[in-house]
Amino acid sequence: MMPVLRPLPDWISSSVEERKKASLHRETEVIDAPQSISPTIDGTPFLSFCSNDYLGLAAHPTLINALAEGAEIYGVGSGASHLVCGHLSPHDELERALSDWLGVERVMLFSTGYMANLAVLSALGRHCETVIQDKLNHASLIDGALLSDASVRRYLHADLSSARKLIEKQSSPSMVVTDGIFSMDGDIAPIDGLINLLSDSKHLLIVDDAHGLGCLGDQGLGTLDEQGIAASSVSALIGTFGKAFGAAGAFVACSNAMAEYLTQFARPYIYTTAMSPAMAYASKSSLDLIRSKEGDELRSRLNSNISLFKECMASLPFELMPSDSAIQPIMIGASDRAIELSAALREEGILCTAIRPPTVPNNQARLRITLSAAHRHDDIKRLCDTLERLAN
Ligand SMILES: *Cc1c(COP(=O)(O)O)cnc(C)c1O
């Protein structure tokens, strides 16, 4: 029997049509091989510059073996939320290892970074008059604040005097929130400056270092370490396993008192199934790798790729953004032009999706080039040579 489709209201398809007309339509595409710098689509190999697999760990044999071993020992599903009976020993071991790495009292696990940010901002925002955010903070931080009753104010990107003006206006407890490395721009937040502005302890400081942890700093300790700041000097530090760690899930690093509060009040922690114990086991092996000599080698390869890319691009007629991280956006402006350049690269076998509004502000569409420790120097040169040809 043919299924009968229930008719939908017109706005469902008219909204999508509007997106298409504005060159803002998006769709998924099937990658039919493991995530890597050389994925295949319909069997055709590409050279990829758009994943967040910064250290090339997503399909690393150590992680693949750990995931299989974790599943063998602890099964696949956690079966419940952390607070009911879904908190298994690999979760506990991963939390302890992360606490030890970061030098904090406690770490709590979350299913994704998006959920961790909803959890932290909604639970803490209940007691804050204002959530003060960098204008370019990740969508999940913006959405998390919307779940609280706090009013939301945004300061000019990475601008301490703009942040100071907002902080000085707060008579009641408030919260300042920033990305460590900004996800679409690749630049670094002035966290030391924010700490100085927040000498009054009634205000909280939250840092989301999704793109810094694993990549920057001694042992991959991230943006804070890069700036000589201990993780314990912020109220909560958020990290994810889906990027440099090459796995899935996220964590919040904080004090015992903060973890106790979040455990009671963070609904996206309480009302969701704990991450797979096998994934926790694999993430622990990724952490071990990131802290090891092999991790140091991957970070130094990544840094040398970043330097080479910036060097090769310096003489080309493209506008790079002020970034020293693995995120190296080429600013294009108009969405249709960004799509054209992305399509032209693709013709040449290079994969880099165009990033358009609303992910970035209007008229700031870009090619967000991401570099990986897995790229060889020849790969970087091929990208730059191709861009040079396309520019002419
Ligand atoms: C990717 C990202 C997240 C979301 O993490 P997921 O684990 O992918 O949900 C949160 N914050 C920032 C800054 C990110 O770049």
From TrEMBL:
Pyridoxal 5'-phosphate binds at G113, Y114, S183, H211, T240. The modification N6-(pyridoxal phosphate)lysine is found at K243. Residues 46-387 form the Aminotransferase class I/classII large domain. Pfam families: Aminotran_1_2. Pathway: Cofactor biosynthesis; biotin biosynthesis. One of its GO terms (biological process) is biotin biosynthetic process. GO terms for molecular function: 8-amino-7-oxononanoate synthase activity; pyridoxal phosphate binding. Its EC number is 2.3.1.47. It catalyses: 6-carboxyhexanoyl-[ACP] + L-alanine + H(+) = (8S)-8-amino-7-oxononanoate + holo-[ACP] + CO2. Substrate binds at R26, H138, T359. Its cofactor is pyridoxal 5'-phosphate. Keywords: Biotin biosynthesis, Pyridoxal phosphate, Transferase. PANTHER family: 8-AMINO-7-OXONONANOATE SYNTHASE (PTHR13693:SF100), CLASS II AMINOTRANSFERASE/8-AMINO-7-OXONONANOATE SYNTHASE (PTHR13693). Belongs to the class-II pyridoxal-phosphate-dependent aminotransferase family. BioF subfamily. Catalyzes the decarboxylative condensation of pimeloyl-[acyl-carrier protein] and L-alanine to produce 8-amino-7-oxononanoate (AON), [acyl-carrier protein], and carbon dioxide. Homodimer. This is 8-amino-7-oxononanoate synthase. It comes from Marinomonas balearica. The gene is bioF.
